[in-house]
Every structure is written in C-alpha cells, then in structure tokens.
Amino acid sequence: MMNVYKTSRHLSGPLFVIFILLATQHSLSFGDTYTYVSLAGEQKVVVYRLANGKLGPSVQEVKVTDSPGGSVFEPRRKIFYLAVRGEGRLLSFQVMSDGTLKLQSDVAVYEDPAYVEVDPGGRFLLSAYYRAGKVAVHRLSDKGEILTNVRWYDTAEKAHAVAIDPSNKFVLVPHTGPNAIFQFRWNAAVGTLTACTPDRLQTGLNTGPRHVVFHRKLPIVYADNEQGSSVTAFRWNAATGQLSAKQTVSTLPTDFTGNNSCARLAMTNDGRFLYASNRGHNSIAGYRIESDGLLKPLGQFATEEVPRGFAIDPRGDHLIAAGQSSGNLQVYTIGNAGHLKATQKVVAGKQPWWVTCISLDRQD
Fold first, then answer.
1. Residues of the domain holding 55
2. How many domains does the chain divide into?
3. Any residues with CB less than 8 A from the CB of 242 and at least 6 apart, and which?
4. Three-class SS state of 350
5. Would you tell me which of 69, 85, 132, 267 could form a disulfide with 110, CB atoms 3.0–4.6 Å apart?
6. Model confidence at 82: pLDDT above 70
7. Quick one: which of 223, 218, 273 has its CA closest to 247?
C-alpha cells in the first residue's frame, strides 16, 4: 500500500553557490537549438549550441555542488530544471535568449532524485527518487521558481522516472526494482496524486521498466526494460489510467551474448520513431512506430561506451548520445526512414549522464 504525507518542512536551506564558468555571450536570434549535458564526474552542466547538425564550442559551463542528473524544460521553454543526485537538490534556472542559464531557485530533497518532469500547465515539478522509493510534487511560482511546499508519496525502491499522460489526468512511475509501473490519477488543479486501482502493473521478473513515453496521438505507452534489454508497447486506457501489454521487442541483435542494460528512451516529436540506449552493446536501438502503435525494429546503431543518456532535437533531425565511460558525445542525423548516421564526435568531459535539447523559437 502506498503512503502519502504532506509536509511544510522548510527543505531549501541556504542557497548553495553556483559558479558560472566560461560563459560567453552571443547575440543570437530566436530559433537556435541548444543542448544541455550533465557531467556527473565534473559536477557541472555544459551548454552547447546545435547548428547545422553540429555542436559548436560550449557557450557556458554551470558548476553545481554535486553530481547533476536529469533535467527538463517547462512548456514555455523559459525555465530549466535540474536534479542534483548525490546531494539531493532540485534547481531551477532562467533560460536566457542566448541559451545560457541563470540560477533562480534551489531546494533540498531526498538523496538521489533520478528524474524530473513538469506538468503541462507549468505549475508543478514532479520528481522520482531512486534510493528513497518516493515521488514528490513541488508547486512552482508564477515565475517558475521551485517552492518549498511539497507533497511526498511512498512507492517502492528504484523509482526511476515520471511520465504525465497527454490529457494531464494520469501519471506513470516506472520502478526498476519491483518490476512495476505505478499508476496514479493526477489532479492538475491542486497537484495531487491518487493511486489507481490497481495501483501498479507488474511487468514480469527481470524486466526493470526504467523510462516511459506516451505516444502523442495514439493510445499507446512505451517503456524500456533495463534488465530485460527490450521495449514494451502498452495499450493505454485513457479513462482508467491502466496499461496492458501489447508487444515486447528486443533492443539487441539476435547474436549478442554479452551483458547489457537499457537506459534512456525517447521518441521524435512527430511520433514516427522511438529510440532506446543499450549499455553493454553500446548502441542506440531504433524503431519505426506503425499506424497501430506497434514497433518495427530498425536495428542498432553503434555509439559511445555506456550510452546512459541521449536526446532528440525538437525538429527530429538529430540525436545526441552521451558515452558515460568514454566522456564523448556522438551526434547523429536521423534519416527519413529513422536510421541514424553518425556525423560528429565531441569530447564532453567526465561521466556525461543526461542530455536535453531545446529550441528557443518560442510560441508565446
């Protein structure tokens, strides 16, 4: 049974000093695309401009006080949220017109926040806690600042991600420990989660659902299975918030016999292609999404060693993958048929964990 409690305990503490290094100011027009890379081994986020399919020299390095992890932008693309994993902090930054970041707020949370997500209304920040086995909902100010009033929900060990359905009525939280995806009703007006009945879907022994992606048009949900080295397509019941398995496909070639685990899962914004990263085989597995939501494998595309994180640019033209062990970024062009073509390798630094891409062509 899941337990929930609300606390007004002041979690922020004194604001930790964030040092902005090597910031270079540019006069750039809107429409530029930027890539944000969390370097866990150097405790900083590096900002790159992505132009003509290539990453230029870094335009900024933002130093934090421990290992940075997952990041996300709110819907208007004006605020950047970052999880600091080892120390347990959530940070928000204003996004400047040249893609650089300016610290806005800093709150203390439980250790090891593995994932952050903003609700479609931009009013709440949701986060999952790998070690604590919890999910949190923080209210955001009108300016996007993370406020200290928060609701905590106990789930299970190794909560790994948060996904909100397109209707903004349900939340899914995959857990790699108990092989389960927890299912919640989401009250977007007040920022509360209520367990569905049943409250979780068991995905099977040694699957380890890690990340979840909702299709933007079809009633289909995809999850990559960390231990299972596979991707599962689920039918989505938009009335009850329940999942039912429809198809599971491997992320590996049939002749691979080594150790492997899946990490990141992402879909192009047009809903045509889905990609999952293989740590061990060191590749990105690609799939074409058919009209019924089923997956057609496109093969595996070699990448850097231990591809923990990757991101797809908003236009769906390029994929940037980070090699946690190699310290390099690999840039790919996404072809019309979904195949990846490696076009550039960039030395990033020690332990790149997470990659996020954004276009500043705002529709305000």
1. 13-359
2. 1
3. 183, 196, 198, 201
4. coil
5. 132
6. yes
7. 223
Per the structure block, which two tokens stand in for 199?
A: 């409250």
Counting residues of the chain whose pLDDT is more than 70, the rounded percentage is 90
Q: Which amino acid is at 9?
A: R
| SS3 at position 1 | coil
pLDDT, mean of residues 180-207: 97
- Nearest one of 340, 363, 246, 352 to 293, comparing CA atoms: 246
Q: What is the length of the chain?
A: 364
pLDDT at 26: 35
Locate all alpha helices (DSSP H) within 116-238, ordered by sequence.
none
CA dihedral 86, 143, 270, 220 (to 10 degrees): 70
CATH of the domain at 45: 2.130.10.10
Q: Token pair 């039918």 is at which residue? A: 235
Instruction: Give the closest residue to 220 by CA, choosing from 269, 275, 114, 291.
Output: 291
| Alpha carbon of residue 278 to chain centroid | 16
Distance, in Å, from the CA atom of 50 to the CA atom of 32, rounded to the nearest integer, reads 7
Residue at 112 is within a domain: yes
Write out pLDDT tens, residues 275-319.
999 999 999 999 999 999 999 999 999 999 999 999 999 999 999
Report the number of secondary-structure helices (H) and strands (E) in the chain.
0, 30
pLDDT digits (tens, 9 = 90+) for 124-158: 999 999 999 999 999 999 999 999 999 999 999 99
In a domain, 1, yes or no: no
Instruction: Write down the mean pLDDT value for the chain.
Output: 91
Domain assignment present for residue 5? The answer is no
**Spatial separation of the C-alpha atoms in residues 145 and 74, rounded to whole Å:** 11
Element (H, E) at 302: strand 295-302
What is the residue-wise DSSP string for 86-100?
A: TTTEEEEEEEPTTS-
Any domain includes 364: no
